[in-house]
Here is the input.
Amino acid sequence: MTTRDTRPGSTGGADVPGPLYGGPDDDYTPEQLAAMNRLELDRLGARYDGVEILHVDPGPEPGSVLEKRAIRQVGTVFGLAGLFAFLFVVVYVGSGWFLPDWQWTVTEGGWSAFFTPLLGLLMGLSLLCVGFGLVLFTKKLLPHETAVQDKHDGSHFDRVTAGATLVGGYHNSGLGRRKLITRSLALMGGGVGLMLIMPLGGLIKNPNRGNPLGTTSWAEGVRLLRNDGTPIRPGDQEPGSLETVFPAVPGGNLQADAATMLIRLRPEQVANLEPRAGQADFAYGEYVAYSKICTHAGCPVSLYEQETSKILCPCHQSQFDVTQGAKPVFGPATRALPQLPIEVDDEGYFVARSDYIEAVGPTYWNRERI
Amino acid sequence: MARTATAPGAPTTKLGKAALEVDDRMLLSPWLRRTMNKVYPDHWSFLLGEIALYSFLILLLSGTYLTFFFDASMREVVYEGSYAPLRGVEMSAAYNSALNLSFDVRGGLFMRQLHHWAALLFVASIVVHLLRIFFTGAFRRPRETNWLIGVVMLVLALLMGVTGYTLPDDLLSGTGLRIISAILLSVPVIGTWAHFAVFNGDFVGTEIIGRFYILHVLLIPAILLALIALHLIILVKQKHTQFPGAGRTEHNVVGNRLFPTFAAKATGLIFVVFGVCAALGGIVQINPIWLWGPYNPAQVSAGSQPDWYIGFLDGSTRIFPPWDINLPGDYNIPALFWPTVVIAGLMFTVLALYPFIERKLTGDTAAHHLLQRPRDVPVRTSLGAMALTFYLWLMVAGGNDLIADKFDISLNAMTWVGRIGVIVLPPIAYVVTYRICLGLQQHDREVLEHGIETGVIRRLPSGEFIEVHQPLGPVDEHGHGQLAYGGAPVPKRMNHVGGARRAIRGFFTPIEEPSQVELEQRAEGRGLATGEPDRELTSSGRPADGGRPSEGGRPQEPRD
Here is the structure.
């Protein structure tokens, strides 16, 4: 590698050290290095990196039984990896071509049920074989060396010199004396930082405007509909049964907080009914309607055990007693399920008398205030 | 000075010349040699962090594939794909595309399950890696920074999991999302504001899947990648810790060089991890979203459980008592706030600060590169066992409905078992672990002092029976060993000190001559055969027997 550039200051090339260059190239000339064999060069480089090779367990003797056996094993495992990979391709490409279709159907139980498991099995086996082959190769055929490397706990020289440069820069900037700049820098940093995060304000919405957390679509005269959109009359339900109802508004059955349970109590339950204070007239005869959204974490309380009058939330096992105004009797919930006041309209269908008088769903900081 | 092509050491082969051309431009060789020469300690527990790294790699690859097909939108569509039971059902576009990915994309279901399994493995390997670091004291100075980064990555991994399993918008993930919403609402003062910022309004809105999507595929992975890079750079700078052993000091690392041994093993491990994930993803069904159905706020399945790593929060939420705190002015702090935000926050804060807490309590501010055996630090080990018991018990409580169902126990009783257990069990775990640690310590000292039990019983002329002990090193005039405990495993069986010949190689038939092995062992000075005249073990290690000379029974150097 010669250079043809002959301008002053440009003699030599990358491999010609400059006057300030230090390092191993000064200690070892190319001639010296050329006189060393590969092992010596390897050890020399290692020593330069602080590594000493203490001990080498050579691999198996070339041509020995041990070596032949190890080669056979590694070769077999790598071969299997290739074979399984090829089979994966066959299954992936061939399904629906020369193999049965891979797409799932209810009636057909055959190939499509095996498609995904086969893909997993073949890819898994193939990759595991690659992995095991590599480990086998390392363990059985490579020499095992024990190397030891020095740990340098930081260099005092580096610290002192780097520190001098850093402090020198700070000193030259004069920031220690030029107080006005320091102060304006603080103001600038704060201001620019604040400015840059300001657009995140677009995420902020006021939760207290219009009380969205405290209201639902239920209102006076809104009918109670089943999920399929049909209204309900008294007498449609057996005593002791529960039906999930939604407000008769567009998309009512998809609203997150409107789902309500309409329960027809059994006569003995009606006899023991202890509604919450001021809510005695919320029921319509033996019918009571409670919010289905758990007051704990908002799961739909779905499991109604009519013998014990309990409603269980399957998420965290809060239990509510429907004869006591759905007040919590066990588990982590603290508030009763809100009760929906209901009556029957002129056509004989259930309607709400108003919205819930309290917020449905999980408790929050200022729930009581709105 | 300029060298010619025939200069000594100049490459003569084509490959060598090409390498020279590259190095001439990129100046790679110093870096390359340093990297290849870097020594890695050889211990299986160092692979745990690597498993986490490799499963993250798999997650990146499989996750990118999934994004080709997933539509993170909550627009209502009608399903018309090939899964007949859901045809005609209204659902979100997200769920629709997740179903299409599972049923109408060739190999899509396999990739989705592979991604899910890799995610479970990712968090699991992080946790086990963290336990290894904790119980061996690898977090001590100078590695506190890496411990902190690790804890942050664990939290991010949990967030990755939560945002990830929410995306399909099925009934199970929607239920999880509802609980996340309730947890946000439960935060005092800012809860409703935070909820409206995250969900863009009341639950559930139309934004949340899209927002979680960008968190899941861009923001959190980018932060994770940066932290992983930082974690590894610091690791390379500080070099590995190692267990104490022959020739190992605070100032060196003993093991294999990166190239070729460690590189080959690590590459092998990548493929093994990938292979295990692929096999699980194909063979073991996970999160069959088509069975859950689309999300509907009015529906839920019994036995809804989150992925395992969130189980502890589910458990704490289930067993926490119904304690709303009512404040003056009609404000209140919901009970839900404590078991979710506070407990999780405390757990991760204590975890993150543990290195500093321990440093404060022990006053040990020195740098440590040699690991400790858990038994040698009984207080830390017992604290760890206590925390682990707490965590695992919460996880068990997260499945209390399943336990109650399968074993026919009252659900309320299971809840109370959870409540009492979480207070009673951790202290018990502390005490038991502490005793076990002391017992193990004592046994190590006993073997060092009296030697290994050989199982050889001798009858003395007086008629007394003694068991012969093999000392591990020189003994004093009382027959007591003089080796001090060095923090390394003490051999406890004769085989550990080469008391037996190594096995003859071969599976069905021997492939080497037994006599050859005998000679080889003799040459290495290993095994009892070397010291044939000394084979007669005459001492019980008791003073009366005058001890026994020191040859034989050198502790074997630990080998991989």
About this structure: Chain B touches chain A through 119 residues (CB under 8 Å).
